[in-house]
Design goal:
alpha/beta, seven-stranded mixed sheet, single chain, 12 strands, three-stranded antiparallel sheet, about 400 residues
Length: about 400
């Protein structure tokens, strides 16, 4: 049976080149990067080389890169670090209703500590209107945190426009770029952002690796205390193998981005258009234009998403219904609901995210299998069987 992995927004396999770069630091080059002997200095050089690669990829200074365990930690460090550093100036934070839970839950915890959070809505494509952000601004606003591209529907946010609003008022601006890194350009000066969260396992690096960009001059209070590692902003013995792997993964992803993005766009559109042609009453979620090159998200009316996932898995096809972090939840996607999609329609959503190993043959295999599965599941749906004469409003 053919196996097709279409869940690259959940995680990616480690590239051979990344593993090759990492292995020596799990074996012979095992030194602690804080040690002054040759073993430690070999490790230190490797860490700093990875820092330079990461900085170059996003147009930053190496001193502005702090290595972390991944996107969730970076989001927490950024949001809480700025909030605690600037709370005497104000306690108001602006975010969006479609953020990753690493952002939303962190903001919720800050609310319990006396901060106020405004969650701006999105349009039907899942895109924030900068005018709504501007309307939400207050004299005590200290932080705006908006993701670069959505992890579920792939919609790309107007980061540069929001940045201008923040800079005019000297408000710190954090961007979660976990899903966009390696898919579209992430340049901190062009976008005008102060903090950026990055993750390794979304770009063919190992899990448990990531980084946080902190612009020089940003007021920031560390959350952890211990040693002096990472300029005391993220103390703890460095994960040298993971950092080396992250640096190599970032280097490869950004170098290959232009060509790979074009290739993925072709596959994405072939998959999306093919599904629309073969399946009636199917809705594409998110913008067709302002969209990540590898993301396909659709709602199949009258079909439950989890059933689709399980049936596709039996055919060797791996997809998801949304964020991997909430796949065990019975509630429909908060992203789709924020976009105004009806509860029952949101429950039939599928997220298919392509990667560097996917081919045209993979897409055609999926297009061959999905319609028959949908037809079979719909035949068992009491709603689908009694739909004649009824009007279905796809929101």
């Amino acid at each position: 049976m053919r196996r097709v992995y279409l869940d690259h927004s959940a995680t990616t396999p480690v590239r051979p080149e990344v593993l090759e770069a990492m292995l020596p630091y799990l074996k012979e080059n095992f030194g602690n990067a804080s040690s002054i002997h040759s073993f430690g200095q070999d490790a230190r050089r490797a860490v700093e080389e990875a820092r330079e690669k990461t900085a170059q990829a996003i147009g930053a200074d190496p001193k502005e890169i702090v290595f972390t365990s991944g996107g969730t930690e970076s989001d927490n460090l950024a949001i809480r670090g700025v909030a605690l550093a600037k709370e005497k100036k104000g306690r108001h934070i602006i975010t969006s209703a479609v953020e990753h839970h690493a952002v939303l839950d962190t903001c919720e915890q800050l609310e319990k500590q006396g901060f106020t959070v405004t969650r701006v809505g999105v349009d039907a494509d899942g895109i924030v209107d900068p005018a709504e952000v501007e309307s939400a601004l207050r004299d005590d606003t200290i932080l705006i945190t908006i993701m670069h591209a959505n992890n579920e529907v792939g919609s790309i946010q107007p980061i540069a426009e929001i940045s201008r609003l923040a800079r005019e008022r000297e408000i710190t601006f954090h961007v979660d770029a976990v899903q966009s890194l390696g898919k579209i350009p992430v340049k901190v000066d062009e976008l005008g952002i102060d903090l950026v969260s990055l993750s390794g396992h979304k770009i063919y690096g190992p899990k448990g690796t990531g980084a946080l960009y902190i612009r020089k001059g940003t007021k920031f209070k560390p959350l952890f205390h211990g040693g002096g590692q990472e300029r005391k902003l993220r103390p703890g013995t460095e994960n040298v193998p993971g950092i080396v792997a992250f640096g190599r993964a970032v280097e490869l992803a950004v170098h290959e981005l232009p060509e790979e993005a074009r290739r993925l766009e072709v596959l994405r559109d072939r998959l999306m258009d093919g599904l629309l042609q073969r399946i009636s009453e199917l809705k594409v979620n998110g913008s067709r234009i302002k969209r990540l090159p590898h993301n396909v998200n659709v709602s199949v009316i009258y079909v439950e998403g989890e059933s689709l996932i399980l049936c596709l898995d039996m055919e060797g096809i791996a997809v998801s219904s949304g964020s991997a972090c909430t796949s065990g939840s019975l509630e429909p996607s908060h992203v789709l609901r924020a976009m105004g999609i009806a509860h029952e329609v949101a429950h039939g959503s599928l997220r298919m995210t392509l990667g560097r190993d996917n081919t045209t043959e993979d897409v055609d295999y999926v297009l061959e299998k999905v319609p028959a599965i949908v037809e079979r599941l719909r035949s068992m749906s009491p709603l689908y069987g009694h739909r004649e004469g009824e009007t279905v409003v796809v929101q």
